């Protein structure tokens, strides 16, 4: 386990949006092959953290390494797959399901080269996994919201990534298709892929999870064995985080007598 | 009727008309190619904004007695990059950025033309197009620029498509978003100036957007939309030129090509629109019903009607059989009666 460096290594990461600190003091190391569920209430900073981990949002402070490479010099983007939260797959011009999924192969295609046989096979596989193989030629804008979500999942699958970020991929997806996606992620995970999954309800994914990370108000409130959705709501009260041992409850209570002090769990660092 | 027809054929043989036809074909191919990406990004009015900025460029060329084509290219590219930067920074929304350049470009152009005194009439030719007065050097510039635009739009289609479809996904896929965004802006500026001689700066956007709007009435994929828009653009551009040339000779009327091209493109849209509505409803009606198990067996109410291949009810595939759509119900043959599906 300790022989290979972590796939994701974020040290003291902070993200500010328009100058306002949103995510603070996050230390997160995810090792190869791990299946991590990122949980927490609405607005707790899960998407912001994922966007920082994919390089979409710059870190205000801290350092991020992906596959043991600093983000600034990381160029192996074909190793990363991303399903954004509630994207919607439609745009101003008709696009077929197949075309949107095919854009997931871009990470592996060189400029000005047509799609190869391997590309087509990966696209067909991805469509098969999300159960949309028979809709490949249909325009995406005519699909339902859940079906469009499945198109976006297929797009990420088509790139055959080693590290997967899925931001609430199953929101609005029915149970059989959640199961199908869980099976696909299970297969990928067995092949050694690393998965970071943002979810409120784990549903059929629950057996796959190795570890849960719970965000609360921009900070990691829990990092440990998998939790149920009910436990997530109260996870911050226990605070048995592995590497945040200093945030103990008795420690906070000790300071409560001093009026001007703001609870360290809630205040930003500046 | 013979004399006008032979006059018309004679006209087609004249060098200025042949130059005009070449310019029309190249413009008709390039403008909708860029237009497809602009429409995909929901920036259909970008061409208009750049067109207005280019007015200042043309006026600058007239004022300084340099080539208005090249000053227009430079100013339009600068304007397009400015629009893109304002949009990216997100300080103002894209719409407002466009509007500001609209007004600034037009006002600047008219002001500069006033300073140049005698060039008002020449500015007019750029505002509404003057394809038949195009010089050989302008034809060559048009051909080269249009060819570059078309090659980039087709060659980099996968990348440009992905960036326009979902910018964040494209960024995580490792594409240089800013580069591609600027590329689209510059391509738009170049095709505006290419189309300037054909349809004029004030109508340029029509040739970029209308063929795309027409194509997407009947298409379902991006690739066919792009291809069909380019074909439609060429047909409108060349067709409009020929119609105006023919009516000018036959009826001795002054029919300018620019507006004719735009009106022909709009006529195409007017034809495609009802076809599109009909096609979409047909597709929706005939999409196979999904195969779902465990629906209780329910026999349809008695009805004397017998469904068949041409009974007038839409037959929709449903797994291994067909359902007939009948008064909002789905009837499937089951022995001697019909089941509700
Ligand atoms: N573009 C933005 N501009 C300003 N504030 C933002 C922006 N995006 C997110 N925030 C703020 O950052 C905080 C965290 O948002 P984030 O989207 O990361 O939450 P989340 O945990 O993903 O929530 P959800 O479960 O609803 O997806 C919220 O308080 C939100 O208001
Ligand atoms: Mg979120």
UniProtKB/TrEMBL annotation, chain A:
- Chain segments annotated as coiled-coil in the UniProt record: none
Protein's name in the database: Metal ABC transporter ATP-binding protein
Going by the UniProt record, its keywords in alphabetical order are: ATP-binding, Nucleotide-binding, Transport
Per the similarity annotation, which family is this?
A: Belongs to the ABC transporter superfamily.
Highest taxon in the source lineage: Bacteria
Signal peptide (residue range): none
Start and end residues of each ABC transporter domain: 8-242
- Region entry Disordered: which residue ranges? 242-270
The GO terms this record gives for MF are: ATP binding
Q: Name one Pfam family in it.
A: ABC_tran
Whose protein is this, by species? Nocardioides mangrovi
UniProtKB/TrEMBL annotation, chain B:
Where located?
Cell membrane; Membrane
Pfam families, A to Z: ABC-3 (PF00950)
UniProt topology in membrane: Multi-pass membrane protein
Q: Which spans are transmembrane here? A: 20-38, 69-86, 98-116, 128-157, 226-246, 258-279
Entry superkingdom: Bacteria
Q: InterPro entries in the record, alphabetically?
A: ABC_BtuC-like, ABC_TroCD
**Major location, coarse class?**
membrane
CDD domains associated with the record: TM_ABC_iron-siderophores_like
Q: Which UniProt keywords apply?
A: Membrane, Transmembrane, Transmembrane helix, Transport
Q: Which family does it belong to?
A: Belongs to the ABC-3 integral membrane protein family.
Official protein name in the record: Metal ABC transporter permease
Organism (species): Nocardioides mangrovi
Source lineage = Bacteria, Bacillati, Actinomycetota, Actinomycetes, Propionibacteriales
């Amino acid at each position: 386990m300790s022989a290979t460096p972590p796939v994701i290594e974020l040290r003291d990461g902070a993200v500010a949006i328009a100058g306002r600190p949103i995510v603070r003091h996050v230390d997160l190391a995810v090792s190869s092959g791990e299946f991590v569920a990122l949980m927490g209430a609405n607005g707790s900073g899960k998407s912001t953290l994922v966007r920082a981990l994919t390089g979409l949002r710059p870190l205000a402070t801290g350092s991020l390494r992906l596959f043991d490479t600093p983000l600034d010099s990381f160029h192996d983007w074909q190793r990363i797959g991303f399903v954004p939260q509630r994207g919607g797959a439609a745009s101003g011009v008709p696009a077929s399901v197949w075309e949107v999924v095919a854009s997931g192969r871009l990470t592996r295609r060189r400029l000005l080269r047509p799609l190869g046989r391997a590309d087509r096979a990966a696209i067909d596989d991805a469509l098969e996994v999300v159960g949309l193989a028979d809709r490949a030629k249909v325009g995406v804008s005519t699909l339902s919201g859940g079906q469009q979500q499945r198109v976006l999942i297929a797009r990420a699958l088509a790139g055959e990534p080693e590290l997967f970020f899925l931001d609430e991929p199953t929101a609005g997806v029915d149970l059989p298709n959640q199961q199908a996606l869980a099976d696909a992620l299970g297969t990928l995970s067995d092949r050694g892929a690393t998965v970071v999954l943002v979810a409120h309800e784990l549903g059929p994914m629950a057996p796959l999870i190795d570890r849960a990370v719970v965000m609360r108000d921009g900070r990691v409130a829990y990092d440990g064995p998998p939790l149920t959705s009910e436990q997530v709501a109260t996870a911050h009260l226990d605070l048995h985080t592995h590497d945040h041992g200093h945030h103990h409850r008795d420690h906070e209570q000790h300071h409560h007598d001093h009026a001007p002090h703001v609870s360290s769990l809630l205040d930003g660092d500046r | 009727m013979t004399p006008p027809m032979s006059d018309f054929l004679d006209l087609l043989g004249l060098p200025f008309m042949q130059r005009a036809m070449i310019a029309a074909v190249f413009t008709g191919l390039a403008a909708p190619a860029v237009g497809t990406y602009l429409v995909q990004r929901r920036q259909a009015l970008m061409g208009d904004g750049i067109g207005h900025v280019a007015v200042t460029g043309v006026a600058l060329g007239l004022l300084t007695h340099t080539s208005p084509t090249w000053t227009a290219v430079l100013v339009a590219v600068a304007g397009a990059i400015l629009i893109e930067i304002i949009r990216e920074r997100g300080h103002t929304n894209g719409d407002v950025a466009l509007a500001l350049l609209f007004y600034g470009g037009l006002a600047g152009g008219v002001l500069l033309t006033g300073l140049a005194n005698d060039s008002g009439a020449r500015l007019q030719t750029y505002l509404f197009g003057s394809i038949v007065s195009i010089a050989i050097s302008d034809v060559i510039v048009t051909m080269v620029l249009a060819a570059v635009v078309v090659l980039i739009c087709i060659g980099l289609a996968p990348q440009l498509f992905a960036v326009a479809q979902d910018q964040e996904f494209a960024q995580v896929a490792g594409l240089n978003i800013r580069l591609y965004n600027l590329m689209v802006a510059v391509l738009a500026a170049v095709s505006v100036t290419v189309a300037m001689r054909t349809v004029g700066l004030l109508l340029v956007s029509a040739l970029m957007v209308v063929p795309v709007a027409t194509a997407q009435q009947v298409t379902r994929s991006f690739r066919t939309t792009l291809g069909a828009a380019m074909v439609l653009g060429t047909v409108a551009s060349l067709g409009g030129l020929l119609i105006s040339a023919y009516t000018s000779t036959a009826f001795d009327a002054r029919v300018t090509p620019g507006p004719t091209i735009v009106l022909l493109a709009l006529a195409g849209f007017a034809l495609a629109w009802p076809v599109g509505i009909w096609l979409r409803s047909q597709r929706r009606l005939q999409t196979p019903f999904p195969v779902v198990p465990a629906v209780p067996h329910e026999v349809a109410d008695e009805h004397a009607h017998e469904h068949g291949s041409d009974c007038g009810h839409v037959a929709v595939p449903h797994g291994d059989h067909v359902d007939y759509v009948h008064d909002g119900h789905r009837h499937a043959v089951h022995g001697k009666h019909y089941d509700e599906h």
